[in-house]
Specification:
Layout lengths: L5 E7 L3 H15 L5 E7 L6 H6 L6 E4 L9 H7 L4 E6 L2 E3 L2 H13 L3 E9 L18 E2 L7 E5 H6 L12 H11 L3 E12 L8 H19 L4 H20 L2 H13 L9 H6 L1 H6 L2 H10 L10
Parallel strand pairs: 1-2, 1-4, 2-3, 6-9
Antiparallel strand pairs: 4-8, 5-9, 6-8, 7-9
Length: about 300
């Protein structure tokens, strides 16, 4: 087998049917290709997913973890990857066709200033899933960030910025990587022709997780990248946004714990350049209470909260 150009890495945890669907679709596009390798990482599943992946071990690399480490479990797959580029998927996401894989490779081959390619995320009915991480218009362009269920990145660059942050577990890991990629002088490119279906399976996405991890991890990001006194405003805004979600989910204790950990953790501050502050304007607006309230009353559809 030739050295792979692209390593496809996906992570799963107790979602057997989703993993089965995703892997069968990926294999459909890669079965006859020797320039692509597939790596499946299991986060200590107990529902038969691990055994199912073992049945594929003669065709793909399977990594079995002894405990659920969250999104950082993907790092084990990244460390084993040999491709020039890494294509990251969830256990419920897959590329629309094989052309998507070729477009990712070609984009990174021909644009030496692009470090990461953000894919268009859509439903199984081909409806785009709008996220504040991505541009709102489907034309190739610079992107602030990316969505974790469908992106490709230069392996050497990804390794240099430290893969996904180990402490985050879930949510906002994309933003930390985006900040690091930008700080390293690379661009993130939105390629709507690279289409990824995300089925958004609800299993495992419980209410407390969506209160605790986005709140805590965003406070960490604010403390790391925002300058005083703006950092104080953004932290208070995020606490208010978290309170709203905690009341919706009935998870107030999780919010208290998230804020406590967010404020007490030892964070080494990095001062972004003025250009980076402009580049990440959408992130700051997304975590501004004034901005959220403005759009909530003006046009609820513009207050995009997907993949928070």
């Amino acid at each position: 087998m030739m050295s792979p150009r692209l390593s496809i890495v996906f992570l799963n945890f107790n979602r057997l049917e989703e993993t089965r669907h995703t892997l069968e679709r990926i294999w459909q596009f890669c079965e006859n290709r020797d320039d692509i390798e597939i790596i499946g990482v299991d986060n200590a599943s107990s529902d038969g997913t691990r055994e199912y992946l073992r049945s594929w071990s003669d065709r793909i690399q399977v990594i079995e973890l002894e405990e659920n480490t969250g999104i950082v479990g993907l790092n084990k797959g990244f460390e084993q990857a040999c491709g020039d580029y890494i294509f990251v998927l969830d256990d419920d996401s897959y590329p629309v066709d094989s052309a998507c894989l070729d477009r990712l490779i070609d984009c990174l081959d021909t644009h030496k200033d692009i470090g990461l390619v953000a894919c268009r995320i859509e439903t199984p009915l081909e409806v785009p899933v709008r996220s504040w991480h991505l541009p709102l218009t489907d034309i190739p362009q610079e992107s602030m960030a990316f969505v974790g269920c469908g992106f490709a990145v230069r392996r050497v660059l990804f390794k240099r910025v430290g893969w996904f942050p180990e402490s985050f577990f879930l949510y906002q890991n994309e933003m930390e990587v985006a900040f690091q990629v930008a700080g390293s002088g690379w661009h993130i490119h939105y390629a709507p022709g690279c289409r990824v279906v995300h089925r958004e399976a609800p299993k495992g996405r419980t209410g407390w997780r969506q209160v605790f991890f986005p709140t805590r991890n965003t406070i960490w990001l604010i403390r790391k990248y925002a300058s005083p006194p703006f950092s104080v405003y953004f932290i208070l805004s995020r606490m208010a946004i978290g309170l709203f979600r905690a009341l919706q989910a009935g998870e107030f204790a999780c919010l208290v714990k998230a804020v406590n950990q967010g404020l007490k953790a030892n964070i080494v501050r990095e001062k972004p350049s003025s250009d980076m502050d402009k580049r990440f304007k959408t992130f700051w607006l997304q975590n501004s209470l004034i901005h959220q309230l403005f759009y909530l009353f003006k046009d609820p559809q513009k207050s995009v909260k997907k993949y928070d």
